[in-house]
Amino acid sequence: MEFPQQQKPAGDGKIVYPPGVKEITDKISNDEVVKRLKMVVKTYMDMDQDSEEEKQQYLSLALHLASEFFLRNPNKDVRLLVACCLADIFRIYAPEDIFLFITRQLKGLEDTKSPQFNRYFYLLENLAWVKSYNICFELEDCNEIFIQLFKTLFSVINNSHNQKVQMHMMDLMSSIIMEGDGVTQELLDTILINLIPAHKNLNKQAYDLAKTLLKRTVQTIETCIANFFNQVLVMGKSSVSDLSEHVFDLIQELFAIDPMLLTSVMPQLEFKLKSNDGEERLAVVRLLAKLFGAKDSELASQNRPLWQCFLGRFNDIHVPVRLECVKFASHCLMNHPDLARDLTEYLKVRSHDPEEAIRHDVIVTIINAGKKDLNLVNDQLLGFVRERTLDKRWRVRKEAMMGLAQLYKKYCLHHEAGKESALKISWIKDKLLHIYYQNSIDDKALNEMWKCQNMLRGLVKELLDLHKLPVSEANNTAMFGKLMSIAKNLPDAGKAQDFMKKFNQVLGEDEKLRVQLEMLISPTCSCKQAEICVREITRKLTFPKQPTNPFLEMVKFLLERIAPVHIDSEAISALVKLLNKSIEGTADDDEEGVTPDTAIRSGLELLKVLSFTHPTAFHSAETYESLLQCLKMEDDKVAEAAIQIFRNTGQKIETELQQIRSTLIPILHQKAKRGTPHQAKQAVHCIHAIFNNKEVQLAQIFEPLSRSLNADVPEQLITPLVSLGHISMLAPDQFASPMKSIVANFIVKDLLMNDRSVGNKNGKLWTTDEEVSPEVLAKVQAIKLLVRWLLGMKNNQSKSANSTLRLLSAMLVSEGDLTEQKKISKSDMSRLRLAAGGAIMKLAQEPCYHDIITPEQFQLCGLVINDECYQVRQIFAQKLHLALVKLLLPLEYLAVFALCAKDPVKERRAHARQCLLKNISVRREYIKQNPLAQEKLVSLLPEYVVPYMIHLLAHDPDFTKPHEYEQLKDIKECLWFMLEVLMTKNENNSHAFLRKMVENIKQTKDAQCPDDAKANEKLYIVCDVALFVIANKSTACHLDSPKDPVLPSKFFLIQDKAIHIYKHTPSIPKPAPVLGAVNKPLTVPGRRIFTKTTTASDTASNTSTNSSPLSSSTINKNRYNSNVATESSESRAQENNENPVIKNDEGKKVRSERTTRYQLELHMLQPKALFSVLSLFVTIFQEEPSQNVTPDAGTEASPVKRRGRPPKTAAAPLAAEKEGAAAPTGGGGAGRGRKRAADPNSNPSAESINIKMSKQQQQNDEGTKRQIDLQR
């Protein structure tokens, strides 16, 4: 029982006497003692057991009366009165109270410096010597007393106690355990809690005390421990103890203390290894890996069944379990070489594991063991690493090659294990050299190596600069940041951080070391000087000498990475001298089979690459003088490369090389005004990068160029437009306002909205750059100028951005012919469409502009990937991929690749699929590597592309008849193209997540046109097809979704679910019986329904195994209708002439089918209607797709007609379908951006009204020029 803490314990020397009783000591007479004792007797006689306050108050007095002075007093009256008092004391106080009181006094042992410590030690010594607490076994509440005693002793022990204190504590506790009938769970918890890592770290002495206690009492306590683990592990009774969640930590600690403590527990772990719960198996594997891998562990030999069961987990279905087993193998090989034979076969299987991380860790395991001792790894294990140098994944190949290189360096170059070991791995050199013959772009790591070296040199220089500053908190924080950045680029970043901190401390204390390091990273340091510096630095760090010094090894690694081992100022100077010889004509280029011009261009290209990675090595007057000569050469490519080298390396020209500066500035001005477009771009960026007065310099270029703009001379416009665009982007604060008037009055009004020349009417859809008219090239640069101007401002509050987006949309709607005067050639229109689509995509990369891009504009941009011109599709797809893979574009733009399913060219479809795979892989890897990405899953998780894809397909201009077989089949192809890649793996139950997401979309309305019944109907039909595709691909999609998907409010509006369910479509489970009746094989799990056969109508075998191509009949019905115009025999395929628009009779309309599943009234009256539509869906899945014709290799690709435009031969039967294919309406929004006849019943959009004018108006006022007001 607990006492109220009202009085201090007797140990404090304060004894409370009854009122009127003075202190009783040996210094007063016996008569006075008797007198005072009589009053004490009276007090105890009047007390009862319920007087808790008085009991606590006079407890110290009771103990005082039991002292030797009273018990052995010669006066019999005194002894009699004391006996009376003691009799009452035993009546009032229970024995439990006495022992709990004594236990509380033991807390005084905590402070060894206290004056009373000797008395507390005396109390502990007596209790341990006579085993006083053992008499408590007869008490009913003995367990409570023991628990309090154990808790007290474990809490007070600390590192100031000597061995005697610990010995007495041990004697006191061990006697209770060994002489009792058993240990209760509560008392066992009191001991075991000190073994848990958190408690162990808080009080190391308590951990040592518990460990010693368990060792001493192993025979007695083992049964109690076994019972505890049996209840938790086997019976699953986690409530028996608060330590149940720490069982695996406890097993590890108990095994380290004495394996005998777990004699009966190990078989229980074998049972747990076979658990159905993957996470539980993982926890047991982690535990056993530590037990088997411990250095002195004999568990594998003593418990072979458990060892064999553990090895079986190498083949576990759960990836983390296999990964943990592979990581364990490294420790096992190093600590238990005798088990290598058992591990070899399992590592062989895992070296071919489908998971990249597991194959990678197999290599790390083998290499780490080999670096410790080559004899630990046999030839078979090294063979596994050799195989992985050809792995399909770069990360695995890199690890295998680096590992083998480290072994070769250690045992062959440094001869650390004798000739026999060197001979064993002599094959490594040849193997690594042969790898350089591979053509994989990932393996070309030279540039990356140079970039990493340059970055590390910069970080070390910044660190040394910080050492020159006075010591301050800010300085220390900056140093820490640099050290962390350096450590990230070294192997084993965790250890590298500690070593870099230590190295930084040494740098702060040793000035000579800092001087050597500064010399090493100096641009003037040669390779020979670098070797001397590295030797001096390592010599300073090897004192005192140690057999192994991991700190020194890490510093050596850093020095090797920052030392100029192949490229330094001397090497650059040598390259420049060779370049000068070629410029002067004194080189032997002709003898080597190259022309001087080619040699100069190639030499500058090499220098340009080095300027990115070794900019400081270029900083010399000689180098820059040679580059100035290159700037004056007539070769445009040479001058462009020279400007870029200045841009990359010339940061110190203004302060240190004034003569170079004075010569360079006029040349850059001239290139920015009259050079090629590429030279102008580099010149503007060069001025902005290397000059302090860049504002003045740029203004001197901007003002004359802005005054000289003349749309009547387009060939002289291109370079000024490039320069002005880049100036406005680099210095928006200075030039944004002047650019606004230029954009409104010249760019839009004079240039883009006017066609001054007539294009070549040869009917080609694409021509070479040289054949493009200067006016169109100027318009393309004008569009780019608009984008750069907006990217510089980064402001979506002004109307300029909206007006520009409307202009770009109008460019797409009008197919590139913004004025609709029919003056522009088809090839020039293709260029302008590509420029407009790319411009919208570029603006979408800036968040402030992405927010204002409407769904209609997004759809117009995305449909460029289905352009009739092959080159437009190709270039646009490449730009889209590059922006997505760098995570620059929002996720919705990934949905555009779904439209590639309709591309008639097999290579384009294959390229699109590879782009999808790469983008999805990049996003998944980014989420894994960045924990903070979990907060942005909506914008990163690839599965979230599905809502955008469904919305995009629902607004596909080809999707005009939602119940027509061919159009539904096209939708299915596009959905499958994306979903097949997304559903390759069912990670985290993603299939159910996709199903849930599509079902949620069916509970919304189309935010683009929420009141348009037909648009919503098309949206729900696309959802239905998507659900069929998902269900056909996966049997796990019907499980519960791990989380509720989030839909983009920009595209979907939440509506009343009841209205949707009953008004638009039945729920998905209802059609299942119909599907089963119509198409039994559809429900077979895992069946692949997209088979490919060759029909009589096929002309070539171009099918893809991953996306079903379209039949020739389908092609004739979609946006890719082509009519090849044959010209000369030298050209096998040319772009065709534009087909005329075929209009249908105005009053004629196509009646929708009565059996649509979205007309609920008909469903209720005619049950067969639902059957018919679902049968149509099933037929789409059963259809065996035919194959497409692709253009002959080496020739221009055959054109594909713009969507909605029938070929001449198909005009009659399709006329009724094509009548309304004009500019986009407010509802559909995805009017494809192709010129069409306007539907007499449709209302053109506001954008169309503002941008287009009727032909009648053109005839009446031909001289009037139209414009888009960018200033409103």
UniProtKB/TrEMBL annotation:
Superkingdom per UniProt: Eukaryota
Biased composition, class Basic and acidic residues, residue ranges: 1262-1272
Biased composition (Low complexity): 1093-1114
Subcellular location: Nucleus
Annotated Pfam families: PDS5
InterPro entries associated with the record: ARM-like, ARM-type_fold, Pds5
Gene Ontology process terms (BP): cell division; DNA repair; mitotic sister chromatid cohesion
CDD domains the record matches: PDS5
Broad class of the protein's primary localization: nucleus
Gene3D superfamilies per UniProt: Leucine-rich Repeat Variant
Region (Disordered): 1093-1151, 1186-1272
Record's keyword terms, sorted: Cell cycle, Cell division, Mitosis, Nucleus, Repeat
GO cellular component: chromatin; nucleus
Biased composition (Polar residues): 1115-1128, 1240-1261
PANTHER family: ANDROGEN INDUCED INHIBITOR OF PROLIFERATION AS3 / PDS5-RELATED, SISTER CHROMATID COHESION PROTEIN PDS5 HOMOLOG A
Protein name in the entry: PDS5 cohesin associated factor A
Gene: PDS5A
